[in-house]
Design goal:
This protein is mainly α. It has one domain. The protein is built from 16 helices and no strands. α1 packs antiparallel against α2, α4 packs antiparallel against α16 and α5 packs antiparallel against α6. The N and C termini lie far apart (74 Å).
Amino acid sequence: MRFEYLLATVILSILLIAGLWLTAKCYRHRSNSFPLKAALLAMYLLVNVISGIVHFLNIDDTNRGYYDAVKSINASNGITLLSSIFITVLGFFSLYFGLLRTKNKKPELEQRKRQQIHLQKTDKKITAWLSLLFFPPSIYSVIVLNSFIEEESLRRVVALTDGMARFGFMAHWFTWATAFLCLWFYSNNIFRSSLSKAALLLISVFAIFWSLRWTGGRTVGVLMSLPLIIVMFQGIKRFKLPLAALMATIAVLYSIFLTLYRKENYSDSQFSLIGVLDWELGKFSMLPFSIDYTSDHGYLLGETLYAAVFSIPLGVIKAIGLSDLFWIPRYVTNITGEAILGNPDLIYIVPGLSSELYMNFGALGIGFGYFLLGRFATWVDLHLSKTQTPTEQLVFSYIAVITIFCSISAQSAAFFGYLFYSGLPLLLALGILKIQSIRYKARHSC
């Protein structure tokens, strides 16, 4: 093993040990039942640190993903690799300092209790009406997309044309229609025992996974069902451990099955844990890529970040036929597709947040970007601690989940898409609750 590989492995191993200690510390001092801060740190360690260790130690393996920083013809030099290590350390501690606790000013207890009773009555009506509102378009969209993949003989939908894209987002709404219905049963105590609540949750999660099978994604089912699981587990007093074990086992088996199914036509169709840790979930190898890319092409100066934010109004702009009047920025997946595969339309190489931040603003982008991510997660964690109704808890649990799954291991556009398009029913529910809360405070402040 070359000296720089050995040094990189040692530094990453030290960072992993320190990171696990800080993650455990965040878990012990969590402010609510969902350990958002600890989970976010753990995700960073998995995506950037463990991935790097595996990448350097597994230098003789041929299945190294789309960019091999140590064995390919265009392997990165020692300076690039050591710069990647520095960036990884910088990103972790920037994230950690962003997650440091802020003081939570609590309202007067009696006032909060009366307001909570009022909002819970409103919450029951919201879950009923929104479930009825979003079931028809979401069920129709699921049917359209499943028919589409059968007609096209696809194993998964990677991208949809502009005309079909709306069905992708509306199909995600089936998750929230199911969740609202589940919470309505839960809030009205129709299922009283822990066993019946566990059965209700299992049926709801199976329905959510069924509705998302057109995506072919291994984590999307977990991502979309986890918020409901977080909320429902609060009311299940017994069977929590066996229920969690059962659901985790099913999720792992489902993920392995999908991996084998998607690789069925490839010569290398075996499930590889090393491959998952190295490049399927891990993104460390894309850091050397981003350093080499910027040395040749310069920094992107926020283009892909702007593209992520712009993707929200872009859907409306395209729908009314005005897209020609606007500059359409490139997503980071367009850039990786062009640089690695020679085609910007091949958008399935997701570089991870570290690589995207570096390609835009270098080490400064890494430090500032991860600190902001930590502050945002702290804000979400604070609101999770103050939720007053099951629907409000569902909303902030979803924001917490996409903060974990759609940031560090993904790209900026994924977070905004999941929040504003896939999460539209939740934002609508939260808006109604906030309006009711403001009205209640206005009436009782006079």
